[in-house]
């Protein structure tokens, strides 16, 4: 991404972010997008991640805590009406190690969700602190 990409459905995707997120957050809010921030520093496994995301994003009580349920919930978000969504996974430097092979599955779900929303002309941007294997947002 360029230093100042325009926030739109076309910029939906999953990126690493290593700088101060304040400018991105301010731009997202000005654009009418909902800023969703989850601190994942305490995650030690998939079950912990699912629980944290369910609580932090207000998933319905029927959330199944598996990858398909995560995709379904992220591709609904009817309980969080907004013109777009920016999800910041904060303090995620150790998340890849904590999840092991599930890291790849998480990224797959997030990318698929970004594509889903982009096809519907709605922003869905995920920025993950310190995820060195992802393209940089800034």
In brief, what are we looking at here?
By secondary structure, the chain is of the alpha/beta class. Helices cover 38% and strands 19% of the residues.
Element layout with pairings:
Blueprint: E1 13-17, H1 22-30, E2 33-39, H2 46-57, H3 67-74, E3 84-90, H4 95-99, H5 102-119, E4 123-129
Parallel strand pairs: 1-4, 2-3, 3-4
Helix pairs in contact: 3-5
Molecular structure report:
There is one protein chain. By secondary structure, this protein is α/β, with parallel strands linked by helices. It has a single domain, classed as 2-Layer Sandwich (Barnase, Chain D). It has 5 helices and 4 strands; from the N terminus they run βαβααβααβ. It has helices at residues 22-30, 46-57, 67-74, 95-99, 102-119, and strands at residues 13-17, 33-39, 84-90, 123-129.
Q: Which labels suit this protein?
A:
Barnase, Chain D; 4 strands; four-stranded parallel beta sheet; globular; about 140 residues; alpha/beta; single chain
């Amino acid at each position: 991404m360029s230093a100042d990409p325009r926030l739109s459905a076309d910029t939906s995707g999953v990126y690493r972010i290593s700088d101060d997120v304040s400018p991105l957050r301010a731009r997202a809010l000005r654009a009418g997008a909902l800023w969703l921030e989850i601190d994942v520093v305490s995650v030690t496994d998939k079950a912990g991640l699912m629980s944290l995301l369910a609580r932090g994003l207000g998933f319905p009580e029927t959330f199944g805590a598996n990858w398909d349920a995560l995709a379904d919930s992220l591709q609904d978000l009817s309980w969080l009406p907004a013109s777009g969504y920016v999800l910041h996974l904060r303090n995620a430097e150790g998340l890849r190690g904590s999840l092991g092979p599930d890291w790849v599955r998480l990224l797959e779900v997030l990318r698929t969700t970004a594509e889903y929303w982009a096809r519907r002309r709605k922003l869905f941007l995920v920025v993950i602190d310190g995820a060195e294997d992802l393209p940089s947002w800034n």
